[in-house]
Design brief:
Oligomer: heterodimer
Number of strands of chain A: 11
Number of helices of chain B: 0
Mean pLDDT of chain B: 91
Radius of gyration of chain A: 13 Å
Largest sheet of chain A: 6 strands, mixed
Number of strands of chain B: 11
Strand content of chain B: over 45%
Largest interface: A-B, 25 and 24 residues
Radius of gyration of chain B: 13 Å
Helix content of chain B: under 10%
Largest sheet of chain B: 7 strands, mixed
Shape of chain A: globular
Structural class of chain A: mainly beta
Order of helices and strands of chain B: EEEEEEEEEEE
Number of helices of chain A: 0
Shape of chain B: globular
Structural class of chain B: mainly beta
Low-confidence stretches of chain A: none
């Protein structure tokens, strides 16, 4: 089956840089998006990679390498408010969408 | 103005009942989705409609039936509710044809509890 794997939990301190990986076990990959979800809230869009390479949006950057079957979200200058769950969302085929397993990020002072 | 709204926000019901969740978006988007998030926070797509046409229909029990009366609305009807249906259901919308490549806007979610 198709799956996008993420680490279940990552911890870091304020001001640090953290990378959340998303690896997939499927053939054919057309793009990767990232979403943030605070406890009790709805997912909100962070970034999208349609092509290989790095996309930068403020403190958040996202990277995709389709040949290596992985992508990552990079969060810089971490703030307490970044504590949340992060999900990758992959387009794995024609009108086939799969969410990653999700990563809970805990930022401490 | 709320971009994607869902009603109700909370729904508590007994096994065997039939219930509906409504979703509306005022963004002018062509595509709408239903997702299920279970107790372990796994998000799974259930359905997607583009301009009232069903384009994604994942392996979901046929007790779940989506209906899109127009492109701004996508409702979810669930028959014969089971304990395993307890979850948070999210509606979302995006511009363009469903492909995951467009930014999706999520509603606030409906927490369904089946007792």
């Amino acid at each position: 089956g198709q799956s996008l794997e993420q680490p279940s939990e990552v911890t870091a301190v304020e001001g640090a840089i953290v990378q959340i990986n998303c690896t997939y076990q499927t053939s054919g990959f057309y793009g990767l998006s990232w979403y943030q979800q605070h406890d009790g809230g709805a997912p909100t869009f962070l970034s999208y990679n349609g092509l290989d390479g790095l996309e930068e949006t403020g403190r958040f950057s996202s990277f995709l390498s389709r040949s290596d079957s992985y992508g990552y979200l990079l969060l810089q200058e971490l703030q307490m408010k970044d504590s949340a769950s992060y999900f990758c969302l992959g387009r794995t085929g024609f009108q086939k969408l799969v969410f990653g397993t999700g990563t809970r990020l805990l930022v401490s002072p | 103005d709320t971009a994607v709204s869902q009603t109700p926000k909370y729904l508590v019901t007994q096994m065997g009942n039939d219930k509906s969740i409504k979703c509306e978006q005022n963004l002018g988007h062509d595509t709408m989705y239903w997702y299920k998030q279970d107790s372990k926070k796994f998000l799974k797509i259930m359905f997607s409609y583009n301009n009232k046409e069903l384009i994604i229909n994942e392996t979901v029990p046929n007790r779940f039936s989506p209906k899109s009366p127009d492109k701004a609305h996508l409702n979810l009807h669930i028959n014969s509710l089971e304990l395993g249906d307890s979850a948070v259901y999210f509606c979302a919308s995006s511009q363009g044809v469903a492909g995951g490549t467009y930014e999706q806007y999520f509603g606030p979610g409906t927490r369904l509890t089946v007792t």
